[in-house]
Design brief:
alpha+beta, Serine Threonine Protein Phosphatase 5, Tetratricopeptide repeat, Neuraminidase, Immunoglobulin-like, 4-stranded antiparallel sheet, 13 helices
Amino acid sequence: MRKYLLYFSIIIAGTILLQSCSVKARVKKADKQFAIGEYYSAGEKYRRVVSQIPAKDKPLRARVFFNLAECYRILNYRNAEQMYGNAIRFGYADSTVYLRYAQVLQRNGKYDVAAKNYAIFLESNPENVFAKNGEISRDQVKIINEQPTNYIVNKYGAFNARRSYTFSPAFLNNDGDVLFFTSNKSINRKGIKKSSAITGSGLNKIYTVRKNAAGKWEKPEIVEAEINTASTDDGACCFNSDGTIMYFTRARQKTATDTGTEIYISNRAGGTWSTPKKLEIFKDSTISVAHPALSPDGQILYFTSDAPNGFGGKDIWKATIDGTECKVIENLGEDINTPGDEMFPSVRVDGTLYFSSNGHVGLGGLDIFKATKNADGSWILQNMGVPINSNGDDFGITFEGKNDKGFFSSNRGETRGYDALYTFELPVFEYVVEGKIMDDNSNPIPDAIVRLVGTNGLNVKVQAKKDGTYKIKLDKDIDCVMMTSARGYLNSSKSVSTQGVKKSEVYTRDFKLSTIYKPIKLDNIFYEFGKWNLTPESETGLQALIKILKDNPNITIEISANTDHVGNNESNKILSEKRAKSVVDYLIANGIKADRLSSVGNGEDKPVVADAALAGKYNFLKENEVLDEAVLDKLTPEQQEIVNQINRRTEFRVLKTTYK
């Protein structure tokens, strides 16, 4: 990939003049440029010569197609897929072609076809980590795409330039009002090289942009020449917490040098950056180091390197900073690093590490990972998921202080692989539970208390307002139990959950509290006609009663059954006694202690006394009127049936509130 090479290719310059114009001579010239990492120039030569290779020379044609595909792959050209296919068609002998072909297919979002080619490669290379992860990715990608995160991602056109690479954003400080980034956008600055044999494009330089008083980003400007020079490729920077020290990557474009990429330091005073000084990390100057990231305390530097004794490819390392030198240099280990490339580390203000990798299971290309530490020092990795990651290269993330927002770079959807800056933001969702607390007559209970306890330790206690209303803010991804109480009333509980809710939500939980001073009618308790057997339809009402008893573990109650005036009172009394006992038996069978329960059958002896609610509902009834036989005799047959239904009821009343 192109950005790998910007900082890790060892540039061996010098022009080799070949006089021969034969096909093989031209291929040989391309091969030489390919060998020294000049992929753009080599690719152009391979592209022009491949069609002129004799058809009978299939091995040469296959090799040139493969090398051309490698150039395209490294430079992020989508044409790599076709070129690998051609190499396979002409019989390229090395099985690596199937691995590379599969990787490009995966990057282009063709996961099923990629898996088939990974399988072919695994037949001769069964332990290859890339191929194993590639096969796993087919299923993982489906899971990741089906479970997108809440991040909102947008391409930020103001900083990106057409046909250029813009990447590796970094905030100057935690205020988030000054941003630096790397770009090879065209600039009219004398002495700056405009193209590279490696990439075919201009050298990278560091740019800066700041917000104005209105909070809008102004026009980006290139950082002064002490940071960006005509002969160096500069970029991928980071800063200490107060923005007075910059660490950045530099690749020197000089002839006859075996020096790899390096990390430099510059200090800022009075708005000006000092002359950069090289940070000494490894004594061996051929070891490339790049992509610096600083711990919040400024003591630990994370960086990318191809140093020996790594895990393959480019690894992430760390070192303790001592002035312009580094000490206690350590590889972050196999939890972080793979045989692939781990690059572009960054560290949030809370110490969380982020980096990009093409070696861990992901969507394709570079994926951004979040790394946190266990108590034992091991790392826990989390793929940042969609939409931050894509099947392209996603890398170089930076956060605006403690906020879940910032910038990252990606080449998603770019035919020629150009990198661009994207914004990301995690919306702040608000969760609220609210409602009213009323008595049985729908009157507010102003002194009611609502207590809410959440699975994350949230513990809130609020008092209802005069109108009986309340409101409580909730945390995300928690389950809560709510208990409402008031003096002289039975407690009532409800639950509420924000688990997995992906938007702001207002939950309504209304409570109706029953007084302990008068009998409470049980709704939905039904018996077989003329019998005391509970019907299946009674389950809901019985379970509601069990809930009341569990919400109020300190009460004992009396269950009473009442009949209408139809039939013999003596037989009605026996029937009602058996019905009340049926309810008690059900409660005991469902775990309620027997010594909390008693039963009584009233028959028709205790008719209902109409309250305001009944009188309001039925205009032929009067408030405080006893619905006995004397009243029934004055009513029409239809009205009598309504009163009989009212009198046929099962109730409970509180006997004690001091149980145990």
